[in-house]
């Protein structure tokens, strides 16, 4: 970790002792032993063990995020025996990896690399390929499934999988609505199956260390968390607006086929390149583009996608094909959840992890209220998802109790601890933690991460890789130095990429390994399946995952209400977080 001892908020001796005893020396020992894979880092750090028999799984949805999860698989814990996807492009990347950039290939290595299969033919002797996911669910060899499909399909696939007796790990957000989340949670309970959701920060070593710092009191009393995910996406260069197979008709009537152009360009390079390494890369890229070009033969209407028309503010119309909805599902409210579901859910999950660390009962902290706004400030009528969102959440602080008489305690100027019935300053039942969140396009300044502020210091987490601790009152011109690492996370079409396993040994030996948590969340899910017991359950089990969904989806509703002139302030109801209550924000606020 990138800690600066001279800037620590507490005594250096006390802090170093705590850090050494509890985490830092342990991490160095893990790395020195070479335990960064297999039954290694995650098992040692989070306390689960290697499984004797890898869980036989199917991967439903092998696109951007599905292929990231494939790249993070540990064969000692899971054995992929089947995959399902409707797109030839995704099937190709599932086996061969994503060769569009070095960072993409590291994140999406492909099954052949993960399991050391030399050819696609060899791989397909082990892995069955299905177009219809229901055929995969009917395969008796599949014990559990990973679902990495567009958000609006999560609930149906998860319910079908559990009805077929399969354990499920679904990508975040848990579902498109809170009602769907509750249906999934109840199904898992009824069928006695493990349902996990991929909020990987619950398995991040860096974030777990941040929790330890908070619990040790290094930051003092937490009162504010500032979170953001800023991207430089602009019209004409939006990472969520992928090319359409078969070409796209522009406003001037011209048809532009970027995929076919890329395929032809790489074919020429294969034919003319003499350097073996470059020629191999060009050949891989040609094959990838050729598979992508095959997507134009799909009939997406068979799989829940629709043709529709959108109108801009000036009354102009644009036709959206079902194929475009499939390829650009993040841009539409019907199929995705926009910035709050795709990006905001990560940051708000992190904030709730930090605030929950302050609780003595170990339960997840639920927000009291949200005030949010947003809109399409840069992009035109090529989407209905917002490109800018801004939120402010009120969370209960340590000792918060809404039952106290606010009027009485506000009149008390001195609260001596010895005065019976009157809390001390630290036990003020009215205290709250305010969390602000922004996600914008058009300016990537600051990247993504969180700043946790307390009365003794501030903790800065950047890009899931670096953490720095500053003492309280540090000068405003003090700059956080963030390393530029080609192995770092990338933003292409999803909130993932880059480093999925431990950092390099050289870096890890001095700072402790940086784990983004993908490998560990899958390992622990597999461990729970092989070791069923009340005490063994995924960290992001249905109650936790549903809580994250309530937070993100309620904020999304607040933004929509703000845009409708109804005001963007919504108080949270505790029953929204109760799996067994039928109350949901979408129903109560309809």
From TrEMBL:
Enzyme Commission number(s) of this protein: 1.1.99.28
Membrane-spanning parts: none
Pfam assignment, any one: GFO_IDH_MocA
GO molecular function, one term: glucose-fructose oxidoreductase activity
Listed Polar residues bias regions: 491-501
Enzyme class: oxidoreductase
Residue span(s) of domain Gfo/Idh/MocA-like oxidoreductase N-terminal: 56-199
SUPFAM superfamilies: Glyceraldehyde-3-phosphate dehydrogenase-like, C-terminal domain, NAD(P)-binding Rossmann-fold domains
Disordered: region residues: 481-501
UniProt xrefs under InterPro entries: Gfo/Idh/MocA-like_OxRdtase_N, Gfo/Idh/MocA_oxidrdct_glycsds, NAD(P)-bd_dom_sf, TAT_signal, TAT_signal_bac_arc
Keywords, sorted A to Z: Oxidoreductase
Domain of life: Bacteria
Alphabetical list of PANTHER family matching this protein: BCDNA.GH03377, NADH-DEPENDENT DEHYDROGENASE-RELATED
UniProt name for this protein: Glucose--fructose oxidoreductase
Organism: Bremerella volcania
Gene that this sequence comes from: gfo_3
């Amino acid at each position: 970790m990138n800690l600066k001892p001279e800037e620590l908020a507490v005594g250096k001796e006390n802090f170093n002792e705590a850090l050494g005893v509890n985490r830092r020396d342990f991490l160095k020992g893990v790395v020195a032993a070479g335990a960064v894979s297999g039954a290694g880092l995650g098992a040692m750090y989070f306390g689960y063990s290697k499984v004797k028999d890898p869980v036989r799984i199917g991967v439903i949805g092998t696109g951007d995020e599905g292929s990231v999860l494939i790249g993070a698989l540990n064969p000692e814990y899971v054995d992929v025996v089947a995959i399902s996807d409707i797109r030839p492009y995704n099937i190709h990347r599932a086996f061969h990896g994503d060769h569009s950039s070095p960072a993409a290939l590291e994140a999406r290595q492909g099954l052949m690399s993960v399991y050391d299969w030399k050819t696609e033919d060899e791989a397909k002797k082990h892995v069955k390929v299905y177009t219809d996911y229901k055929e995969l669910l009917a395969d008796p060899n599949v014990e559990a499934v990973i679902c990495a499909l567009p958000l609006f399909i999560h609930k149906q696939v998860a319910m079908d999988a559990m009805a077929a007796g399969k354990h499920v790990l679904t990508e975040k957000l848990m579902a498109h609505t809170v009602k769907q989340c509750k249906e999934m949670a109840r199904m898992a309970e009824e069928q006695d199956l493990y349902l996990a959701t991929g909020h990987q920060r619950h398995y991040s070593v860096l974030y777990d260390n941040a929790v330890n710092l908070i619990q040790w009191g290094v930051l003092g009393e937490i009162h504010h968390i500032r979170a953001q995910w800023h991207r430089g996406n602009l019209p004409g260069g939006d990472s969520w607006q992928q090319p359409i197979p078969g070409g796209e008709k522009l406003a001037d009537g011209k048809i532009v086929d970027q995929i076919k152009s890329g395929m032809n360009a790489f074919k020429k390079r294969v034919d003319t390149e003499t350097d073996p390494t470059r020629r191999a890369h060009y050949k891989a890229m040609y094959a990838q583009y050729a598979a992508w070009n095959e997507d134009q033969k799909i009939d997406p209407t068979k799989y829940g996608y629709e043709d529709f028309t959108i109108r801009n503010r000036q009354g102009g119309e644009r036709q959206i094909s079902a194929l475009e909805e499939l390829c650009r599902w993040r841009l539409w409210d019907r199929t995705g959840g926009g910035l709050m579901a795709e990006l905001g859910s990560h940051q708000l999950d992190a904030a709730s992890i930090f605030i929950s660390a302050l609780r003595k009962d170990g339960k997840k902290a639920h927000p009291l209220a949200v005030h949010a706004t947003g809109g399409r400030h840069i992009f035109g009528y090529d989407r209905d998802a917002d490109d800018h969102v801004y939120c402010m959440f009120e969370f209960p602080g340590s000792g918060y109790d809404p039952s106290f008489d606010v009027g009485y305690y506000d009149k008390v100027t001195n609260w001596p601890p010895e005065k019976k019935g009157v809390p001390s300053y630290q036990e003020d039942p009215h205290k709250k933690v305010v969390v602000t969140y922004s996600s914008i396009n058009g300016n990537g300044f600051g990247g993504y991460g969180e700043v946790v502020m307390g009365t003794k210091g501030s903790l800065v987490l950047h890009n899931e890789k670096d953490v720095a601790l500053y003492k309280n009152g540090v000068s405003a011109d003090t700059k956080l130095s963030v390393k530029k690492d080609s192995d770092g996370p990338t933003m292409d079409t999803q909130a993932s990429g880059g480093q999925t396993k431990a950092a390099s040994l050289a870096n890890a030996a001095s700072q402790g390994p940086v784990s983004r948590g993908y490998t560990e969340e899958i390992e622990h899910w597999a461990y729970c399946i092989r070791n069923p017991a009340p005490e063994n359950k995924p960290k992001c089990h249905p109650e936790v995952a549903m809580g994250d969904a309530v937070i993100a989806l309620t904020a999304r509703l607040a933004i929509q209400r703000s845009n409708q002139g109804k005001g963007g302030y919504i108080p949270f109801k505790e029953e929204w977080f109760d799996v067994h209550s039928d109350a949901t924000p979408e129903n109560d606020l309809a």
